Amino acid sequence: MNGRDEYILVIPAYNESATIREVVQGALRHFDTVIVVDDGSSDDTLEKLLDLPVTLRQHPENLGKAASLWNGMQVALKLGAKGIVTMDGDGQHDPTDLPRLLMAAQIHPDRLVIGSRLWNRDAIPKARYRANRFANFWIAWASGQAIEDSQSGFRVYPAQLIRLCQFKLSRDRSFVFESEIIIEAARHKFLCAFQPVQTTYPKNARPSHFRPVKDIVRITRMVFWRLFIRGFFLPGLWRSLSGNQSLKPRKTLDVC
Q: Less CB within 10 Å around the terminal CB: N or C of the chain?
């Protein structure tokens, strides 16, 4: 079983003209159905894909990454996806890692599988690495589990998890969404599993939309509120610090 007909790939895209075609062509080697959501791009992102066998959706204006992901996920659910894979359109995620993520998801269908990049510290800009580690601490506490990489958008979501979740989406919360859904998943008893993946920063890619200071502040504010309404959830802090997961992600998920 390779998952081609059970898993659907969603790629959010905003001004990704330089990289999107190569990303999608790589993804099509592993998926029968690829959904690209163009988030009101001002360049020719959409035109780069018109001759490829992909499902295209376009926002009339820029709504943010969260809306692009969520709307693409809803399309995938309507198409009958068993699981929904997400990756970025800027070339940071290597399509050759997709089989590893799919195998991990098939072995552990009740997990939110996340491609972990932090094992290769030298490949990540220092400011982003520090911001990610800071966010990991808070999200691990709020979700009650050890977290290796909370900011990676290279993921496999069980379809049932997406059906259970509800979110308030707004443009200024675009990078909050992928953190909040980890916490929401844990609330619904879907823990995380982490599969090491490669990450690259193509020279021809547009500048990252992620702002380490501003977005981490927003993420921390969201997490703090969730902790506050749960009485600061001290058992979650203990589990996050002790690494108390029934699945040991590196050993179990380092598949070929």
A: C
The pLDDT, as a whole number, for residue 175 is: 77
Classify 149 as helix, strand or coil: coil
Expressed in angstroms, the distance from the first to the final Cα of the chain is: 15
Q: Measure the CA–CA gap between 60 and 40, rounded to whole angstroms.
A: 5
Distance CA(238)–CA(123), nearest Å, equals 30
Does the structure show a pLDDT above 60 at 7?
Answer: yes
pLDDT of residue 114: 97
CA distances to 59, 165, 213, 231, 237 from 224, rounded to whole Å, are 31, 20, 16, 10, 13
Q: Tell me the β-bridge partners of 196.
A: 116
For residues 89 and 154, what is the distance between their CA atoms, to the nearest angstrom? 11
The label of the residue with tokens 């496999």 reads 156
Sign of the CA dihedral running 84, 118, 172, 39: negative
pLDDT (0 to 100) of residue 212 = 66
Provide the CB-side half-sphere exposure for 147 (13 A, CA).
26
- Domain 7-253: homologous superfamily in CATH: Spore Coat Polysaccharide Biosynthesis Protein SpsA; Chain A (3.90.550.10)
CB 237 within 8 A of CB 141: yes
Please tell me the predicted confidence (pLDDT) of residue 243.
67
Kindly calculate the radius of gyration of the chain based on its CA atoms and give it in whole angstroms: 17
Written as one letter, the residue type at 29 is R
User: Where is 107: in which H helix or E strand?
Assistant: helix 98-107
**Phi, psi angle pair for 196, to nearest 5°:** -60, 135
